[in-house]
């Protein structure tokens, strides 16, 4: 489960209001040991391994935890704090705006998580491409070298894509304060994971399935970029900027093939 930011302002996952300065209210003798995001503080320093999970715990000094309501809509600022991770995954698959607001604006994103996901995405794409090129006439050593070559190429092109999108949106918005945008883009590309089961269990209409996967991925990136800039950039503009990123990657592939 992702931990919340230690201090606000937090964004309401329901209405998008940005001026909420606390996610939870903690009542009890040890209430001062928790920050505005519900994270446990040890000796004045936030402990990254501890967080409030809103589940009953046996404690000498029991705490009473309550989600704060948004000052704009009156609903809980971030109800994902008291929900199980499976609901978060389900909302991610449904591409709900509330999920992207929770991930982008209210959560602490570790530096290692986007990197790990980036490598996994590249592996899934590589395996799909590699399996389509494999034939029984190719030697095992050649198959292995082919896989590594495709893997390095996919890492390179994915890196170009995410960096180009980050630069395009930073220039488009006129500022570079969205330092979390790059990590959010990587996390929001979870649709790339679907390529592995689709490859392992192919269907008769594989081309249609691949097209639907790409549309799903594109829709998730549009939603991510729109939420990252608090919908100040319309979804049409986000789509055009993303298409420009795809064009940069396509041009890079053509230049390398030459």
From TrEMBL:
Superkingdom of the source species: Eukaryota
GO BP, one annotated term: regulation of plasma membrane sterol distribution
GO cellular component, one term: cortical endoplasmic reticulum
Keywords (A to Z) from UniProt: Endoplasmic reticulum, Lipid metabolism, Lipid transport, Membrane, Transmembrane, Transmembrane helix, Transport
Subcellular location: Endoplasmic reticulum membrane
Keyword Transmembrane: yes
Stretches that traverse the bilayer: 146-171
Entry annotated with the keyword Transport: yes
Pfam families linked to this entry: Arv1
Membrane topology: Multi-pass membrane protein
Function noted in UniProt: Mediator of sterol homeostasis involved in sterol uptake, trafficking and distribution into membranes.
Similarity comment: Belongs to the ARV1 family.
Protein name as it appears in the record: Protein ARV
């Amino acid at each position: 489960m992702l931990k919340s930011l230690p201090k606000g302002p937090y964004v309401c996952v329901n209405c998008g209001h940005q001026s909420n300065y606390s996610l939870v209210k903690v009542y009890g003798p040890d209430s001062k040991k928790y920050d505005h995001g519900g994270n446990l503080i040890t000796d004045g320093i936030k402990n990254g391994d501890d967080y409030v999970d809103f589940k009953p715990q046996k404690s000498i000094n029991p705490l009473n935890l309550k989600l704060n309501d948004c000052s704009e809509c009156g609903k809980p600022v971030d109800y994902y704090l008291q929900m199980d991770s499976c609901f978060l995954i389900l909302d991610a698959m449904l591409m709900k705006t509330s999920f992207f607001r929770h991930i982008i604006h209210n959560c602490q994103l570790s530096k290692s998580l986007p990197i790990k996901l980036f490598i996994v995405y590249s592996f899934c794409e590589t395996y799909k491409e590699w399996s389509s090129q494999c034939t029984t006439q190719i030697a095992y050593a050649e198959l292995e070298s082919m896989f590594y070559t495709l893997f390095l190429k996919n890492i390179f092109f994915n890196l170009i894509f995410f960096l180009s999108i980050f630069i395009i949106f930073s220039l488009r918005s006129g500022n570079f304060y969205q330092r979390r945008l790059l990590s959010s883009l990587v996390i929001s590309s979870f649709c790339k994971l679907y390529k592995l089961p689709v490859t392992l269990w192919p269907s008769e209409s594989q081309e249609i399935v691949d097209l639907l996967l790409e549309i799903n991925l594109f829709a998730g990136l549009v939603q991510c970029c729109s939420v990252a800039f608090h919908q100040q950039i319309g979804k049409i503009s986000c789509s055009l900027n993303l298409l420009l990123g795809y064009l940069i990657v396509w041009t890079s592939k053509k230049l390398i093939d030459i």
